[in-house]
Amino acid sequence: MMTRRTAIRRVVAGFCATVAVGRPLEAESPPAEYAAKAASLAWLIEYIKWPAGVTFDTLGIVGDDPFGAALEKVKTRHAKSIEELKDCQIVFVPKSESANVETILNSVGTANVLTAGDSEGFAKNGGVIGLVMEEGKVRFEINTAAARRAGIGIDLRVLKLALHVFND
Q1: Which value, to the nearest 10 degrees, does the dihedral of the CA atoms of residues 74, 39, 81, 123 take?
Q2: pLDDT of residue 5
């Protein structure tokens, strides 16, 4: 049986192999973009400090799943509403749900849930991690206030690499 850590390492290794080929991600089809975002998200998970008694187990995706097979090594659950994902440790909100971001974030409230998304301004508007494409690479934005409200710590090494750090 494959452990979660092994699965995450395989996703990251696949991402690194894709990047090593040297093709810009924005020239690829959307699945390549989401393969890179999945790998980045998997890498970021390793640097999250969960509250006592909480460990990462399931990544929930609200709305349409843009990742396809890119997250096949990570335990995921898909749902049309946030209420179905409240027991997930991470909830990903794709661009297709950008009109519902505020409602979704309010619904999560102060639960020990790391919210991640890729709509414009996701972290600035209260999500914990925003995945951003910049010059064909996946970058991320972090909202430390949102992380604190969720009881989640983010390693300083990640904060130093972030494109933007918000502390609303």
Answers
A1: 140
A2: 52
Q: How many residues does the chain have?
A: 168
- What pLDDT sits at residue 68? 86
Q: What is the pTM of this model?
A: 0.81
- DSSP-derived secondary structure for 7-50: HHHHHHHHHHHHHHTT--GGGS-HHHHHHHHHHHHHHHHTTEEP
Give the whole-angstrom CA distance, residue 144 versus residue 121: 14
H or E element at residue 153: strand 153-154
Average pLDDT, the chain: 85
The token pair that represents 95 in the structure block: 């661009």
